[in-house]
Amino acid sequence: MKIEIWSDFACPFCYIGKTRFEQALAAFKHKNKVDIVYKAYQLNPNAPKVMMGSADEAFAKSHNMTKEQAKERFKMFTQNAKTVGLEYRYDLIQMTNTFDAHRLAKWANTLGKEDVITSRLMKAYFTEGQNLADTKALINLAAEVGLDPKEAEKVLKNNEYSDQVTAQQQEARQLGVQGVPFFVINRKYGISGAQQTDYFTRALEQIWQEENPLQTLENQDKDASCDHDECGF
After folding, report:
1. Using 50, 70 and 90 to split pLDDT, how confident is the model at 218?
2. I need a labelling partner for 109 at 20 to 30 A (CA). Which of 40, 69, 148, 211 fits?
3. pTM for this predicted structure
């Protein structure tokens, strides 16, 4: 089973959805046969590299709402995060561009560490208030998860993996993805949003059964079972 997950490190429901999905996957008996692929998506491709003003001011401006409405939205995000044990600090958050962070994640993927860097980047953004557009911050975060900081610096400074990030965002548009997180299973099923853990559990079980119907073993004794003509009334 292949599951592609489009998400953004600056998306509050992506972090929540990732956590809920991982809880469901951990209890899925066929988890070892599930291939997870992370795909890049930016909620705000035009976000600056340095946030001007406060978070509520930045959010209000980008969403055409008042500061009070932005603060209420932050409270809703924070409360949802608490349901899965996550801490969101909107008093610290730096709403900046995530393109370079996505490039770093694509490089981490070549080393089998995209999952761990994704979690680390999300925590850095929502809990620690780190600027994911800052090269030094990204290099330090890469080092924290066991990646070579010198190689990370090379990737970031040479603009590597930009084409891959852009291509994955274009792919999302082609698939009709209008919001994240968005889960695509076997290129046949789509799940939109940070669904509850039990929803993900049911979806995994149902899709597995549909994709892997019960197979009949060969060379069985065909006279040891009943059909209507042989045994029926």
Report:
1. low
2. 211
3. 0.90
